[in-house]
Amino acid sequence: MITRPDDLPEEELLLSGTRSCAGCSMSLMYRTAIKALGKNTIITVPASCLTVLHGLYHKQSVLVNVIHTTFETTAASASGIVAALEALGLDEKITVVGFAGDGGTSDIGIQGLSGAAERNTNFIYACYDNEMYSNTGTQRSGQTPYMAYTTTTPHGKLEHKKNIPMIMLAHNIPYIATTCASYPLDVFNKFTRAKQFKGTRYIHVLAPCPPGWGYPTHESIEIGKLAVRTGIFPLYEIIDGKMFLSKESEPYLDPRKRLPVADYLKKQGRFKHITQQHIDTYQEYVNGQWDFISKML
Amino acid sequence: MVNSRDPKSTIAAVQHPTVGEAGKTGTWRTFRPVIDENKCILVTSPKARCHTCWMFCPEGNISKTRPPRVNYDYCKGCGICAQSCPHDAIAMRKEEDEP
Ligand SMILES: Cc1ncc(C[n+]2csc(CCOP(=O)(O)OP(=O)(O)O)c2C)c(N)n1
Ligand code: SF4
Ligand code: SF4
Ligand code: SF4
Predict the structure, then answer these.
(1) For A123, which of A78, A254, B58, B76 could close a Cys bridge (C-beta 3.0–4.6 Å)?
(2) Which atom of ligand 2 is nearest to the CA of A130?
(3) pTM value surpassing 0.80
């Protein structure tokens, strides 16, 4: 486990000058994650902002092996790569990773993911969660939170976020983790830990998106930290069914330590229409989420 | 000739790793990060450790050196480095004001 910024490996596997927006935290979490995964990795990526980051044929902006797959097939594609590596006797040497957005994971890709997890196929599935279909101009996904504006929820989404890590828990896989782009050391440590397990491993990374969420580019880190400090996005690991709260989220088990959800919501354009009643509903939802977590610890 | 039975001769679309895949993204900038070496802890105390700005740059446009340097060819001017420096050593300056 590393604890300081300069403990991160110096070698950059993400090359400067990509196509992703200024201030994109998805780019930051990907840069950090591939440092942990290393060069002996094959990543399969469905249609998303992450595809765009990789660039246009015949150039690509990373030094790891990447396969571009269709929107719904991340886990099926990863399963195929795993089968091929096993046939070639290379499965011990190469890490396979499916890296998809929240839409690609919780909506269109969930059946393939569920099938692969049920078979405990040997790969890491990482979902970077920018809480909308950012690449196609911000439509609602199953991960869009309550009351967030998207082009398909013009008055705010009426439903809460779908809890994908808990759906993955129901598959009895060996490793599940949540992390956030604003904590690169946590991202690095969790990807490093995931590599040590065999079977399906799931990592959910919250990745704030300046144009989609409506905040200035320099605030990406602060917004992600507020999601954690308000208790909206808890960071934890679940190892063989047992939950461990990560140190970044530990204080917020105590409701008095949590910042009010309004501190997070009010900084973002996507919530600018919300009323006090919505804020109260949001707060109740977050408190309920922590009651659930405290029973799991 | 491509022999479809020989995996080594299979032809696929191959992409090549390239710095600046999207061109010189430094041209996207409105503000540029300028590191004040008199404030950077790596300069002011030779034994200190930091590189927080390097860690947080979404694309690795800051070097892990002492003092750190910004790669202006590709820095998109997001301001994350300036926001995250614990010693307030990075200022965001309007492009036109810079020589
Ligand atoms: C079958 C199919 N439907 C729709 C699309 C168009 N499409 C491309 S990317 C995308 C959104 C991806 O959203 P998400 O997975 O959340 O990733 P993000 O763009 O937010 O990074 C959509 C709808 C597609 N490529 N394939
Ligand atoms: S739209 Fe959002 S997630 Fe996509 S590249 Fe831009 S900042 Fe990143
Ligand atoms: S964090 Fe943003 S402003 Fe700072 S060097 Fe990187 S791209 Fe440039
Ligand atoms: S974050 Fe600030 S103090 Fe630390 S290395 Fe960068 S410029 Fe220097």
Answers:
(1) A78
(2) 3
(3) yes
